[in-house]
């Protein structure tokens, strides 16, 4: 039997080796193999079915997630999967679950903040899932401001214990995933109080539930915080609320790698520097950046395929109508997002390298690159997650009415994705307070002082040149030159930072200036982060990339990424004089012609993500393009269609039609 | 007992008469009275409870909506409410229902397209709800391209009937609200075929279900199209799918105001001009514009109040932390949205006037203003709904993590709102193909030909001046002058349109040019529409507006609206030379100082919307600001909290913790 493929024609048009691109996307042949195998394993196992999620009640939805998590773990054990494979398998199950927090936050927290003995005690339990852990930092009253947490951990020298307590309503832990129903343990952040004195916020391993019957231990009150955005989405997760009524834990359950409390109640700073926690943050945020590229790529894959299937208007002489992907407006909305998925992918790859580099340096006692690495990871987390969240919604709109159906996969992708803009640091707070803007202002203030800017701020050393240089583009094709693009982005970023610094210097109290100019500082931070992404894409292209036509396609995408940004932020480029308006207009002409070049390759470029239909979870994004009959089939599964005459007709429709409402009991 | 009001301090700071502003917002004292009475009526009736929606299954959710719709109708009859009051009551029930389509589309379609006899026959049935109607235009394969609809209506002269048929899968009607389960009738759009000849798409009144038992009539297949975005949101609506197998209807069920088919099978154009349908479109879209202002105002109200309650960072000497509304970044994201709600309100008011004006002219046989009115309504629909959709999501993000909870009200507001960007014309298609861009290009091409541009394009008559003029702003305060703002927006819009027209003229085939330059044309259309909104706001302020300090506040909001737009689109203003970069920077300085002015009035400005807590449906937006205890209460209502140990523990958690998964059946 011939396999159905409505997109076969599109696939034939591709001008590059799709299989080679798959390797580039995955990062390596090995990474491709693992991801390919695991995604098929999940897709072929009916236990991992997920298309029914929107129809389940909260309780059934959650129970179903518990089942899948257990089944996944069972398969991981049975098949003796490696850590890498297990992670990939969980990823392709594609359902937020308590295990995400167990593996993604609880274990890393112990690894990062626990002493060797603590690691030896707790990690084996966690690795075997004999305990289930979560990460309990945020409280009802405090998220961004971690130093403002209210939970207390008071040392009791008599019993050698800490007393964990929630003194106020707002001090309840609120949000931690996996906390509400599944976790037996948590890393709890609390203000350390020893001998009446405060010593800042630290992590404590606290057992929450009995390992016999899962009942909360005495003094512990725990519950789920209720429904969240979307119907499936993050509602598979038991984000929880937790309060402590003087709960006692052993002293050795404080995570003591950085600071210790001794038997005698002495608070001792260890020789491990505090900056170490930055290392963990870099780790978690680099993961968020690669997740951003994944989430956006799924949306772009759906919208691209459906835009090639969907036809609307433009029929000539009774022939087929125009594929909507051929409309320039559709291209102008879609292709920059497609380019962004690749851009985010490569900057994510680079962050993995950066994390490795930082880790090695830390081990060698070199902390010099940490602040820069920390700032740039935070900034990239913020910029990529914001674009991804908006981009998923844009992809949904690109699918017209049908994008609004759950069966398009896009509503749930969006609802499940958006919290990435908030957790692990609110995106605005990250850009402003936490790191990027402050780091940039510090860097600018040190220019000329002899201290060389490092890493992603190295370009600032060329401050004199970048302040004065004029863009050399004279015709549209000049905008294909990496150095022209790079210099424009560098000039824009540097000039925005310098302008902020100059304005700041006029305030007698720098903090007042910082508060007043916050919005501009955020814009300068965004400009700097966009430059990083553009430059890492360009660097990637300087490598050897095998596969026929592969590099060429990536060059096109890189240029689309940069020129679409340039157009979107034209105000920045023009107001800083980094380009002229004529040059902006040339860049836009070039952009249009790049769209034409990428168009025949669009389907192949999303095929390169190598997503199974199970993982995509979208009728509109089906590999075979067989959209319409399947939309129909899917619709008929809705429980509302169990009867043609709806439940409620007799009570609420008939009396109305029959003008008998007056006497009806409603 | 003292009433709790955590925001009392904020309310005292207001520098204007809130009650007077309520009248301005409502449009008149009368409109305020109606809306105030109806919103309280709904809020005080437990039958209209809506906080449990996220927890209901699709079937229960839908049944519940049927109940509310019947109850609302019962109250409307019992209380003998006027049409205006009934509309307001339905609005405050705040739940998409089949009645929206019955009153909002079915009735207007018959009014607009039915002959006098047809109206006499059908309207009384519809007014009494003896029949329930929907509007069935879109098909699985065609939405935007109405001329491409595939359903056929073939005249059979032997029986004096039309045969309605769905020849293909893609010709099934798909999306109409109220169609799936509730409607007994539909206005169905189909290609008219008489004597083998096609006569375009027309509307037909078709009965779908028996009035005895609600069973679909022979030849009719109808169902619900399944779950949509969000858990409550639009899932209360039975958007449906419908196909016809040679269904026969009487000839007089074709809506014949514009075109008739006679007993003999002659197709006769009536003397009513086709443009009349534009009138209905202007009506529907003006409603969408005022709905945009309402939806955005709800989100802004929630985010503003919560931003005043929420404190994070900045505690000095143990005092309270800073209210997040005091951060400039928060203001920079929130206040332009607050200003937009007022801007959209006033442009909506003006559209009501425009609709009246157009209707009166039509009655007098004057069609001259119709194209302009049609273009500007379509453009304003597009621009206001896009900003509102994005704005609601931004308001959600402004609430940090808690905005992600359903109990914040924001997720459902978003999910229920976004289809407004798609229905009644996809926003991009509206700007480009349907009307705005084409109308602008036509207007530009006729400049200098003696034909004066009318209505909202009148400014284009000053083409020579606007092409050359230079913005006069020299200091930040100059940006408070309405004429400075207006001229900058006019120059930007005109220059963008003229630039497009010039580029277009270089193409030998104008349609090729139009296709190639589509993205730029959309930008020019947006610029024109933004100018309309700014200018209508300014016009409003030239009226007499009673109430202490009211006008002053509106002036501040008007300036914020305009200057925030100017900053966001600075690229347009600079590249067209409409302002200099120095002037752009001054405008931004002015904007910051406007934020400071609006800050103490922010809470009062959202109080002026006069929303009940029931209508807002948000814990974060509660009038009294008593957020935290109520978040807690709400969380505990989740069905998942019925037991502390979750359903599924025994099967899926315990075996895992006890390392007994191998033998478990999952
Ligand atoms: C789905 C989800 C899962 C989560 N999982 C976990 C978890 O497992 N464990 C855990 O501990 N936590 C978790 N969280 C909590 C999350 O980390 C916090 O929500 C996040 O840190 C943001 O803090 P907040 O909610 O207090 O926002 P807020 O800080 O209250 O932010 C509200 C608004 O104020 C603004 N703002 C705040 N401070 C400033 C400032 N200084 N300057 C300018 N603007 C400011 C913000 O930009 C935002 O617009 C989760 C949250 C979500 C939504
Ligand atoms: C919640 C909801 C309720 C609805 N209620 C009703 C109802 O009661 N009755 C009814 O009849 N219909 C209803 N509709 C259908 C609605 O009117 C259509 O979805 C809408 O007209 C868009 O058409 P489409 O879905 O075919 O989008 P498409 O036209 O398929 O659009 C897909 C993409 O193609 C692009 N595109 C299409 N044509 C062009 C072009 N010429 N140039 C550039 N780009 C183009 C669009 O911009 C979009 O990005 C409803 C829809 C929704 C979501």
TrEMBL record, chains A, B:
Its main location: other. It comes from the Eukaryota. FAD binds at residues 138, 177. GO terms for molecular function: acyl-CoA oxidase activity; FAD binding; fatty acid binding. Residues 482-658 form the Acyl-CoA oxidase C-terminal domain. The keyword rRNA processing does not apply. Its cofactor is FAD. Pfam families: ACOX, ACOX_C_alpha1, Acyl-CoA_dh_M, Acyl-CoA_ox_N. PANTHER family: ELECTRON TRANSPORT OXIDOREDUCTASE, PEROXISOMAL ACYL-COENZYME A OXIDASE 1. The active site is at residue 424. This is Acyl-coenzyme A oxidase. Residues 278-441 form the Acyl-CoA oxidase C-alpha1 domain. Residues 17-132 form the Acyl-coenzyme A oxidase N-terminal domain. Coiled coil: none annotated. Keywords: FAD, Fatty acid metabolism, Flavoprotein, Lipid metabolism, Oxidoreductase, Peroxisome. Residues 134-236 form the Acyl-CoA oxidase/dehydrogenase middle domain.
């Amino acid at each position: 039997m011939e396999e159905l493929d409505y997109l076969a024609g599109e696939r034939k048009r591709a001008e590059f080796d799709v299989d080679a691109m798959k390797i580039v996307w995955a990062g390596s042949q090995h990474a491709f193999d693992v991801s390919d195998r695991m995604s098929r394993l999940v897709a072929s196992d009916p236990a991992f079915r997920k298309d029914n999620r929107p129809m389940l009640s909260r309780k059934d939805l959650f129970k179903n997630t518990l089942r899948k998590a257990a089944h996944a773990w069972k398969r991981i054990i049975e098949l003796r999967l490696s850590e890498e494979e297990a992670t990939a398998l969980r990823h392709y199950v594609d359902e937020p679950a308590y295990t995400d927090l167990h593996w993604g936050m609880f274990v890393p927290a112990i690894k990062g903040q626990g002493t060797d003995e603590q690691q030896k005690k707790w990690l084996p339990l966690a690795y075997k899932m004999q305990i289930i852990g979560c990460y309990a930092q945020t409280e009802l009253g405090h998220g961004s401001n971690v130093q403002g947490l209210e939970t207390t951990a008071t040392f009791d020298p008599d019993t050698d214990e800490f007393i964990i307590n929630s003194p106020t309503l707002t001090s309840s832990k609120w949000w931690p995933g996996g906390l509400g129903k599944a976790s037996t343990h948590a890393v709890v952040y609390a203000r350390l109080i020893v001998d009446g004195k405060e010593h800042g916020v630290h992590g404590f391993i606290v057992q929450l539930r009995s390992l016999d019957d899962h009942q909360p231990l005495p003094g512990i009150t725990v519950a789920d915080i209720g429904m969240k955005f979307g119907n499936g989405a993050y509602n598979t997760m038991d984000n929880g609320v937790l309060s402590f009524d003087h709960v006692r834990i052993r002293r050795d359950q404080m995570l003591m790698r950085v600071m210790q409390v001794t038997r005698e109640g002495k608070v001792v700073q260890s020789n491990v520097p505090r900056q170490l926690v930055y290392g963990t943050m870099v780790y978690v945020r680099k993961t968020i950046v690669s997740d951003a590229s994944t989430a956006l790529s799924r949306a772009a894959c759906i919208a691209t395929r459906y835009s090639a299937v969907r036809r609307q208007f433009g029929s000539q002489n009774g022939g087929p109508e125009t594929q909507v992907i051929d409309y320039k407006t559709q291209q102008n909305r879609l292709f920059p997002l497609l380019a962004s998925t690749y851009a985010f992918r490569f900057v994510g790859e680079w962050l993995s390298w950066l994390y490795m580099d930082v880790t090695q340096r830390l081990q060698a006692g070199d902390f010099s690159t940490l602040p820069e690495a920390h700032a740039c990871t935070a900034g990239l987390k913020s910029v990529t997650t914001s674009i991804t969240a908006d981009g998923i919604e844009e992809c949904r709109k690109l699918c017209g009415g049908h994008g609004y159906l759950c069966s398009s996969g896009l509503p749930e992708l969006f609802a499940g994705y958006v919290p990435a803009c908030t957790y692990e640091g609110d995106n605005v707070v990250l850009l402003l307070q936490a790191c990027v803007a402050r780091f940039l202002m510090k860097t600018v203030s040190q220019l000329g002082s002899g201290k060389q800017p490092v890493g992603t701020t190295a370009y600032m050393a060329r401050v004199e040149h970048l302040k004065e240089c004029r863009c050399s583009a004279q015709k549209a094709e000049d905008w294909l030159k990496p150095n022209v693009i790079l210099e424009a982005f560098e000039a824009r970023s540097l000039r925005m930072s310098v302008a902020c610094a100059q304005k700041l210097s006029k305030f007698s109290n720098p903090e007042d200036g910082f508060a007043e100019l916050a919005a501009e500082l955020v814009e300068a931070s965004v400009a700097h982060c966009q430059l990083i992404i553009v430059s890492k894409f360009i660097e990637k292209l300087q490598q050897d990339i095998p596969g026929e036509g592969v590099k060429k396609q990536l060059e096109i995408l890189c240029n689309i990424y940069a020129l679409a940004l340039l157009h979107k932020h034209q105000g920045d480029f023009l107001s800083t004089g980094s380009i002229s308006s004529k040059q902006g207009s040339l860049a836009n002409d070039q952009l249009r012609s790049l769209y034409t070049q990428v168009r025949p390759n669009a389907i192949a470029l999303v095929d390169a993500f190598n997503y199974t239909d199970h993982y995509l979870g979208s009728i509109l994004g089906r590999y075979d393009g067989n959209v319409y009959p399947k939309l129909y089939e899917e619709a008929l599964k809705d429980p509302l269609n169990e009867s043609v005459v709806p439940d409620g007709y007799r009570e609420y429709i008939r009396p109305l039609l029959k003008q008998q409402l007056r006497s009806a009991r409603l």
